[in-house]
Amino acid sequence: MSGLGLIFLGPPGVGKGTQAALLAERRGIPHISTGEMFRRAIRERTPMGERARPYVESGGYVPDEVVNGIVAERLAEPDCAGGFILDGFSRTTGQAEALDRILAAQDRRLSAAVVLEVPDAVVLRRLSGRRQCSGCGAVYHVEFDPPAREGLCDRCGSPLIQRDDDNEETVRRRLQVYHEQTAPLREHYEGRGLLLRIDGDAPVAEVARRIDEALAAVEPS
Predict the structure, then answer these.
(1) Among residues 26, 69, 97, 157, which is most buried (max CB within 10 A)?
(2) Is 91 labeled as catalytic in the residue annotation?
(3) In 10 A of CB 44, how many CB atoms?
(4) pTM for this structure?
(5) Out of 39, 101, 163, 209, which one is annotated catalytic?
(6) Are strands 160-161 and 130-133 parallel, antiparallel or unpaired?
């Protein structure tokens, strides 16, 4: 197996999910989120999916052994033969080392770890300004994408609410946890020469261009 093998890193609100999905479309390779992997493995009743099921259904912590097994199952599927983008894995150096072992067993390697860098103040502004429709679930932003009528959904007219995980205090905590947990992971990939730092404080199209430019040096010819 060969192809472009990537992981995307970055705290909530930096746009890594958006950029990973766009890059996957441009390269014709799967964008694999942790949530998607779990749902698929459980739905298809794979061996690791069955092991994960009781943890997921009870809301408990899924052991790394099971998480790593689900990743191995997913990366072995035919659609990943030409490459993959992992979004949400690895989260720790232990998982990063497990990913190395998984890829080595499949005779492949990681091409790069792409980290989108956006100042915390910008992330706070992006997330704390989000509002969601209490009726249909549509998402708005008080500054960047406001509704036509303040506080009301354009689609169904229901009141807009701020999710608990988007309030300023919660966002600050999430950012702190992210920085504490991922600092060793970033050092791990930087030490191996695999970390690609991308300035994510720009319009979507410009960030996509920066990612393509950075990947030109690591993408298989």
Answers:
(1) 69
(2) yes
(3) 10
(4) 0.84
(5) 163
(6) antiparallel
User: 90 preceded by cis ω (within 30°)?
Assistant: yes
**Which residue has tokens 């905590």?**
173
Whether 43 is catalytic is no
In this predicted structure, the answer to whether residue 107 has a pLDDT above a threshold of 50 is yes
For this structure, is 125 an active site residue? no
Catalytic residue among 74, 126, 130, 210: 130
Report all structural domains of the chain as residue ranges with CATH numbers, in order of start. Answer: 4-118+180-215 (3.40.50.300)
Q: In this structure, what token pair is assigned to residue 181?
A: 């947990």
Nearest to 82 by CA among 25, 22, 30: 30
Q: Is 205 helix (H, G, I), strand (E, B) or coil?
A: helix
Out of 91, 172, 186, 197, which one is annotated catalytic? 91
What tokens does 188 get?
């791990």
